[in-house]
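Annex B. Sample input.
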Amino acid sequence: MKIHRVTANNRRKAFEVRTASRVLSFPYARADPRPSANDRIAEVSVDSELGREGFVFVLESGKEGVVHIEQVLEYNQDPTCLRDALLYRLTIEAQRRVEASALSKREIIRRLGTSATQFYRLIDSTNYRKSVDQLLTLLYVLDCDVGLVVRTKSA
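Annex B, continued. Sample output.
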């Protein structure tokens, strides 16, 4: 996701990050180094070296900081970001289980009822075009129970 514009809002003590579809907020308290009343933001701009997927800021003291769009999306609990994190964790676990399994990869592919190409896409941690359903099916074939825990967020 590309950043179109970023501004510092000292009243809200947050950066306002504009993307193609919306404006997101990122609090100064999450930035490193942390801006303060004694060390304010002197400059903020979208970083083209990051492919417009991040921004840089400079404090009056000369300290510089970088914030990537992933940090902004995570703070704002973007559903796509949360889904991708879940897919990544399930994929890493599936990779571990495939390696530890007594089943051959050919047998796993047969039980999934899919092709070898699709199987390798499924265990590729950089592929986010797969579904949670497919990963759950793979983990089931590997004799795993997958549980979902929902709990109140801690402060």
